[in-house]
Specification:
Helix 1 crosses helix 2 and helix 2 runs antiparallel to helix 9. The radius of gyration is 19 Å and the shape is elongated. It has 221 residues and is an all-alpha fold. The protein starts with a helix and ends in a 9-residue tail after the last helix. The chain has a single domain, classed as MFS general substrate transporter like domains (Growth Hormone, Chain: A), CATH 1.20.1250.20.
Length: 221
């Protein structure tokens, strides 16, 4: 398919959906990677957990990530894509902001921090999965794989690379205030993603992919 047709579909014809996909992928990538790839550093530096014991703390955290999409996934079809994406993004952001405050106030231990983030990522993992689901179904059939590749690359660049670097630097400073602010940024981004979904989200549940976005071939392109 000609590059100009793909460009026109993504940038012009479906620009609101492109904005939605960009926001959902970027915000969840930043949120997810900022915490997941720096969690071990938080445990060892701020909670003095021995490095040999870090794996035990990561196990429930990883379990929450697995169970979230498994147990919440069906709700995206029964309750609705738009409602559930808004809820999971918004709730993940609110809970992170609350946990960040508890951390800043010195009210958490390594165990309660792990429990809090396990709950957060039970919800956030379902939110992250919904971002990939959204991008995979809201564009015409011929360009869905291309759209996923584009938004995944952008999200990984901004969140998968930028967030660990930023939070690694923050943790290196040893400042709880800086880390608190960093977590608030991640929380705000997820809430922004929720608001964007509420604004321009696509109610794609129980609809055929052709009805969500008509194939380009059906219009003689």
């Amino acid at each position: 398919m000609a590059a100009d047709l793909i460009w026109n579909a993504i940038v012009h014809e479906h620009r609101r959906r492109s904005l939605l996909g960009f926001v959902l992928m970027l915000t969840q990538a930043f949120f997810y990677n900022a915490i997941f790839f720096t969690y071990a550093l938080v445990l060892t530096r701020f909670y003095s957990v021995p490095e040999k014991d870090v794996g035990g703390y990561l196990l429930p955290f990883a379990l929450g990530n697995v169970l979230g999409p498994l147990l919440l996934g069906h709700l995206f079809d029964t309750i609705g894509r738009k409602q559930m994406i808004t809820i999971t993004y918004g709730l993940a952001g609110i809970l992170l902001a609350l946990t960040a405050w508890l951390f800043y106030a010195g009210l958490l231990t390594a165990q309660t921090q792990t429990m809090a983030w396990t709950i957060i990522f039970f919800i956030a993992s379902a939110a992250a999965s919904s971002a990939y689901l959204t991008v995979s179904e809201i564009f015409p059939l011929e360009i869905r794989a291309f759209a996923i590749a584009i938004f995944y690359a952008i999200g990984t660049l901004a969140g998968g690379v930028g967030a660990p670097l930023l939070f690694g630097w923050i943790i290196g400073t040893g400042s709880t205030t800086a880390l608190f602010i960093g977590y608030l940024i991640g929380a705000a981004l997820m809430i922004f993603g929720a608001l964007t979904e509420a604004w321009i989200g696509v109610p794609a549940e129980r609809r055929s992919l052709e009805h969500i976005a008509a194939p380009l071939s059906s219009r003689g392109l």
